[in-house]
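Before the break, one more example. Copy the sequence into your notebook; we will annotate it together after we see the structure.
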Amino acid sequence: MKNDNSTRLTTLTLDFSRALRQYMHQCVKDEKVNFLQIHALVLIAEHKGMSMKDFAQHMKITSPSATSFIDRLVKLKWVRRVSSVKNRKVIRLALTPIGKKILVTKMKERAQFMRRIVSLIPPEDQKHLERIFTDLNNHLHSQKTSF
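Here is what the structure looks like once it is written out:
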């Protein structure tokens, strides 16, 4: 085996991630907004003026599936389609004021939830975890290629 610590950490990280998703799903019971919708809103907010094609690629879904998904978000009035000024065939996506409000609310709920989880860890361990996450974050953001 390559590295026992690495194997254990990988398994623990995956287990923690799964448990966190399940726990968050239980705590944030909101039938109006699901995780995929939040993910889509974040994606559109982070990539201003993203095209439908880009959206489909980021979500790893087909163009027809992306169209269907966006249709629902448009119907909910969370997202709007905007024709490109340069090329009317290209459709850009933008959050509506309602979509922005939902995203801000959900991100606040998520931050509050994560603060509760982190508060379970002793302060000294929180400092170590902060350093580890900072180092990992910096390393991942400095990578020019994916693993």
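The chain is about 65% helix and 5% strand. Residues 4-27 form the longest helix (24 residues). Try to locate both features in your own notes.
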